[in-house]
């Protein structure tokens, strides 16, 4: 039986340190139950809740928060700092976004919330570094179902960007269990996925 992405990603635990080494990104367009997918994640992994256009997002976020606490997972909310702060969760931002003042203030506390930022090139990585992000999600490493027209970075370009990023970088885009070793060799500190972890295609 083929190894799952969660099993393959264990090789990244030491490199990731205190950061999540495996990240599930929810996507309402791809289907799948975020709670069921999160319940299959190993301790030390993280969930980034997107589901922007879904009514009841706050309720879903609260349920995910309880599940993540019970399973020793990290929860991040995409693009909504107010919701993230209300849940004591981290915040994930799209490329070009900036964390609002209340979230920046919360990050001065001893138990500061995680901040991750999406990036597609060097300028975005440099900006994420300047903003003090804990982790940049660099994509797409490989061809991906989520963005079929996007040109993948490939391992050589990814490695070059990761070396110069100034902060840890997670590989996103087409990452499967069989590609974790390549992502790790290219300098990824973590891997992130939609379909390979949610059970969607």
From TrEMBL:
A molecular function (GO) term: thiamine-phosphate diphosphorylase activity
Domain Thiamine phosphate synthase/TenI stretches: 46-196
InterPro entries: ThiamineP_synth_TenI
Membrane among keywords: no
Keywords from the named record: Thiamine biosynthesis
Protein name in UniProt: Thiamine phosphate synthase
Lineage, highest ranks first: Bacteria, Pseudomonadati, Pseudomonadota, Alphaproteobacteria, Acetobacterales
GO biological process: thiamine biosynthetic process
Keyword Cell inner membrane: no
One of the record's GO cellular component terms: cytoplasm
Domain of life: Bacteria
